[in-house]
Design a protein that fits this description.
This protein is mostly helical. It has one domain. It has 4 helices and no strands.
Amino acid sequence: MSYGLFAASMVVALTYFIACSLVFPHQIEDGDRLDDHFWANKRIVLGLMIVATVLGCVINIIGNLGDAARRIHVFDQVISIFIYCLLIAPAALTRRKWLFAALIGLHMFLYVVEGAVTAFLPEPQVLGDAAPISPNPASDGGARNSQPLA
């Protein structure tokens, strides 16, 4: 791990920390409602979450560009971040509770679907990544394919 990667990761972590520290009030007084605090700080919290998520994605993409086996995931990450920003940015800016709930709910649904698809679909192989299977197991000592051909 390089110093630059460590420093960039710390910036992302600090951004998430600041966003999370603004979710709840530091002092609760009689008559204060958490809803009022949330709606007052929603834009800055979600804005910081967007910044941290995009920074994390950029760091991940930069790290993946050097590895041919991981380069295939760059497109997936860009699409995921685009959808994330498309849903979270309007949620941060809206004052309508129903629209906020719909955008965040849709984001949560898509997040679960993306996780399920990732868990159940096999990893795509990069061309030239898989070792060829020898048609004659005896020619390579049976190292790659120990099953006899039928």
